[in-house]
Amino acid sequence: MTGIGPAPILFNEFFQMFVRCMPPNGWPVNSKIAVGNSGGPDSTCLLFLLKKLLTDLRSKAMAGQSIPTSVVSLSVNHNLQETSRSMAARSAANAAAMGVEHLTLDIPWGTPPFSAKPVAGQPMEQVAREARYHVIFDGMVRTGAHSVAFGHHADDQVETSLMRLARGTTELGAGGMRRCRRWGMGTGDVEGGLGWVGHHGLNRWIMRPLLEVRKDRILATCEEHRLDYVNDPTNFQPEITLRNAIRQMLTLQEEGKDMVISSPLIVTQSALSGLPQHISGSLEKIKIAAADLQETTMDLEGGLHQLHGAVKVLSSRLEDVDNEVTFHLKNLTLPSPPSTLILSSHALPAIVDPTVRLAFVLRVMRYVSFHPWGSLRADGNRRRSSIQRIIDTLWQSDGAPSFTAGGGVLWQPAIFSAKKRLRVGTQCLGRQLQPGERFAWMASRLPAVPYHILDTATLSSKLDVDITERLAIAISRGDDSLEVLFDCRFLVRFDLSQIPEKLVGALRKYQETGVNVRIKPHTKYYWPKVVLRKPSYPDTTYATLMDNGQIDTFGHAPWVTMKYIRLLDAT
Length: 571
Prior knowledge:
22 strands; six-stranded antiparallel β-sheet; alpha+beta; six-stranded mixed β-sheet
């Protein structure tokens, strides 16, 4: 008697999976969702289910649900393997067979911002990933997709958790991928560079509907509906990437083969011998880190079933921590100047869980930092010693001196009163509280130079932004507006129908006269201001952000808006 095999994914079941991936504010009306389509079973299954779901909902009363109305397939030709082109062709053919719009995206290695093509023996996983995500985001923009769905499943989630453990992640990181998250500003740090997407990434989403589904159910779904797919042969070559090596390690264990982990090489009965040192070393780190987890037991020799359970515990824990941090931020945040966050220190001791404290600090850093939102740099690269220093100081010291511990964030003692001006920094040290006052901490952008020399110091091009050419081109094209991201913190928007005539005149002759329009920081919080610079003349200020959040345009029409766009939510 044969056992019952894994069940295919039912359409109603998939609908519930998809709804759980909905962005916090829902999908825009008539939005489009992209699917990252490799031609393999996971993305083929996802594309089929999503196309079927959206088609059915449009023809039923359920069409009133807040869901996208169309889907587009995006495939990436990495040009790294002989099979890359054929897999991209299979992706296109599958999409066409399902009646889905499709776009194939080639990675032009060696053409800026892309690096030269990685060669055999080089660590290529991160390089290929950054290039892939770069062209996928470009594909979303080109097709008008608001979000992209990936076919990552529960087995992938285990692999991701283990990979993060190899990199020294916290237990928050070991919770793996989120079902839904913002794209973020990207991994790059230079506008136009690889991985950079800027403020546009704050309004686009990544979702993973199949994240709690085992691989065998995806294969069963493909078989049930006779879906044609290909298997990427490089997925089964452990010497190429750490993920492949982890997958092979887990497969061997699942098959009951003996395996011993020893540094610097992995010695198995067959397939895991002779791996590159950076991969075998990472596998050894995984074993050590997994044994140190506090929230759950992760036994690498316990098989996939045990690992699925452990990662699910960590993922659930991550969601609980996110919710708790959101609750505490609402209770602790005091009225704050734009781009800063003032936290009442008297209630901080109520947060006793070390993991919640860690997540709390990371959330604040990501909100205040000048590094791209969503990047590791905005989290201080999650260096444990640095984060722990912040936690120790905030939770154990009222009125400690100002300090920084990474992420581009300055922490300063503050005394807050609803009826008096805010006191910040050294003036708070040793001061006795008066009635109505309370101790607090202010998190703000770490200054690049002291405030008293801000107007005369030579600043980097990220802080002294020349927008002359962009403005001149936008005006000549007849554009209605121009948006500029300043310091990865403020979105400065110019209403070109209201721009002062004197400035328009100066821009017409900027190449001959040498005048230029710039966005520069002012105040100790590095708020933006727009200035006109003429050779041998002092700067003329045309717009500044004031401490009440309003814009002073110095008697001109309201032609500039300045909005702080970094987010404090968990996504």
